[in-house]
Amino acid sequence: MNDASRVLVALRVPVPAGRAFAAFTEQIGQWWRPNGLFQFSVNRSGTLAFEPGPAGRLVETYADGSTFVVGDIRTWDPPHRLVLSWRQASFAPEQETELHVRFDEVPASGESGVETRVTVEHFGWDAIPADHAARHGFPLAVFQLRFAQWWRELLGGMGALAAEPGGPAE
């Protein structure tokens, strides 16, 4: 994987890694917010859900019941790591990117004892041409910045959800 073409975002959340992993995977339909620039299918947005486990998938389900498979899980290692392929409907059959998510417990800055640094690395955008609908004509560096900003917002929502009382079990 080419590090220069990745989108990299890391954010601390005030929960143990198990809870952060569970929020990311079990509650993605609650914290994921569609973005008009980065939709999986043109003019459609649905609800995301993981089919968990090493042979699982990430699937977007639309109001009419139809689905789009965003990606196949390549590594399922709770509560430490998740890797999956990532596609948009407009990608050619040979085109895909790859999402890596790590959940690393770190000492908390406050009194909570432990926090989790959630790191998202999204590789392969250099293989998607700038004139492709998914890149919107942006040069790679501009696209990476916009995509990273969106991931940061998403992870902020995921962290807030994970920290709510009664959040996902570890």
**Average pLDDT for all residues:** 88
**Low-pLDDT segments, ≥5 res:** none
Task: Report strand order across the widest sheet.
Answer: 1-7-6-5-4-3-2
Approximate helicity band:
10-25%
Query: What is the first-to-last residue Cα distance?
Result: 31 Å
Highest-level CATH class: Alpha Beta
Largest sheet: 7 strands, antiparallel
Alpha carbon gyration radius: 16 Å
CATH domain topology: Alpha-D-Glucose-1,6-Bisphosphate, Chain A, domain 4
Question: Can you describe this structure?
Answer:
This protein is an alpha+beta fold and 170 residues long. The protein has one domain (3-163): 2-Layer Sandwich (Alpha-D-Glucose-1,6-Bisphosphate, Chain A, domain 4). It is built from 3 helices and 7 strands, in the order βααββββββα. It has helices at residues 17-26, 28-31, 140-163, and strands at residues 7-13, 47-51, 57-61, 67-77, 81-86, 97-107, 114-123. It has a 7-stranded antiparallel sheet with strand order 1-7-6-5-4-3-2. Strand 2 (47-51) and strand 3 (57-61) form a beta hairpin. Helix 1 (17-26) packs across helix 3 (140-163). It is globular. The two termini are 31 Å apart. 23% of the residues are buried. The mean pLDDT is 88.
